[in-house]
């Protein structure tokens, strides 16, 4: 939801500059939301300019009523000046049709926040609620278009875009990028013997396994059918082999939960020695993976 956060920060910047506020903030009570942000003050409460317990935010959310407060004790810094109190104006904000946030603005010293400030914020919040709902919907659609709906991993299109960017970065900075193609061994036999619903469950499990062995910087995607791809930035073949060894150890244990033999075959290709483009690396990893399958499966081969 990075685009949503950028949009919200842009609104706060304009509001702060045009109205001369010392600080503005949008706060959401659920910390899992990524729309919370603030401008002009350092406060730990999910980006909100409020006391540590968030009492004013919670009051506005609970009552749904705009609130003008002449003095708010805070611990914060504006520029290089440490301040002990603010006046503030708080208005409720419907974030995306499923919850309410708070749009607030603050002034340090005189003049204090006024009823005029409250009216301006109320008007901004009215339009901002609609704009935020559209921004969230757009972000959800973007994420959905890049996601494989069975496994929750990235899809082939998202993989190719991410891999092109990472290859360009690897070439620029002289860093290795390993691409791993993984295929479930004897998947057709699982489907034929246990049914397609069981087969889908196995694919979802493989997706969870891949997420579990990935670092934050890695990228896992479903390539199609029972094929998956891992992109491992700044990782030589030796590092990719260690990652795949964890997968090879964990897959049979996961398969036993479903009553199926679950092993994988994998092929590794690494920038720059095995290719200098995304397509070349995928092709090299694919050939190495099929060599692993021809050699009996449940193994890893390198390009």
Report on this model:
Residues 30-53 have low confidence and may be disordered. This protein folds into two domains: 2-145, Beta-Lactamase (2-Layer Sandwich), CATH 3.30.450; 156-302, Reverse transcriptase/Diguanylate cyclase domain (Alpha-Beta Plaits, 2-Layer Sandwich). It has a five-stranded antiparallel β-sheet with strand order 2-1-5-4-3. The chain has a five-stranded mixed β-sheet with strand order 7-8-6-9-10, with helices on both faces. Helices cover 47% and strands 24% of the residues. The protein is elongated, with a radius of gyration of 26 Å. The protein has 303 residues and is α+β, with helices and mostly antiparallel strands.
DSSP E strands, number: 10
Order of H and E elements: HEEHEEEHHEHHEEHEHE
Q: Multimeric state of these chains?
A: single chain
| Helix-residue proportion | 40-55%
Overall pLDDT score = 80
| Number of helical segments with 4 or more residues | 8
CATH superfamily of the largest domain: Reverse transcriptase/Diguanylate cyclase domain
Q: Describe the biggest sheet? A: 5 strands, antiparallel
Radius of gyration: 26 Å
List the main descriptive attributes of the protein structure presented here.
single chain; 303 residues; alpha+beta; Alpha-Beta Plaits; 2 domains; five-stranded mixed sheet; elongated
């Amino acid at each position: 939801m990075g685009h949503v956060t950028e949009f919200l920060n842009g609104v706060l910047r304009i509001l702060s500059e045009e109205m001369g506020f010392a600080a503005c903030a949008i706060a959401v009570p659920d910390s899992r939301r990524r729309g919370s942000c603030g401008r002009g003050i350092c406060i730990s409460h999910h980006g909100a300019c409020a006391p540590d317990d968030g009492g004013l935010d919670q009051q506005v959310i609970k009552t749904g009523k705009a609130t003008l407060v002449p003095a708010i004790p805070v611990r914060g810094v504006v520029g290089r000046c440490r301040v002990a109190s603010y006046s503030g104006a708080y208005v409720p904000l419907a974030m995306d049709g499923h919850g309410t946030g708070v749009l607030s603005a603050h002034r340090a010293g005189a003049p204090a926040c006024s009823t005029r400030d409250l009216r301006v914020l109320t008007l901004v919040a009215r339009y901002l609620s609609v704009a935020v709902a559209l921004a969230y919907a757009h972000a959800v659609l973007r994420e959905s278009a890049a996601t494989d709906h069975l496994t929750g991993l990235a899809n082939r299109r998202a993989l190719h875009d991410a891999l092109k960017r990472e290859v360009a970065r690897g070439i620029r900075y002289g860093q290795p990028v390993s691409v791993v193609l993984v295929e479930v061994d004897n998947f057709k036999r699982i489907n034929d013997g246990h049914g397609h619903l069981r087969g889908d469950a196995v694919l979802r499990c493989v997706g969870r396994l891949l997420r579990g062995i990935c670092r934050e910087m890695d990228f896992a995607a479903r390539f199609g059918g029972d094929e998956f791809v891992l992109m491992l930035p700044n990782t030589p073949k030796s590092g990719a082999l260690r990652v795949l060894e964890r997968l090879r150890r964990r897959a049979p244990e996961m398969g036993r939960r479903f009553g199926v033999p679950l092993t994988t075959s994998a092929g590794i290709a690494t920038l720059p020695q095995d290719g200098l483009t995304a397509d070349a690396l995928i092709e090299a990893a694919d050939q190495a993976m099929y060599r692993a399958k021809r050699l009996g499966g449940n193994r890893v081969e390198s390009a």
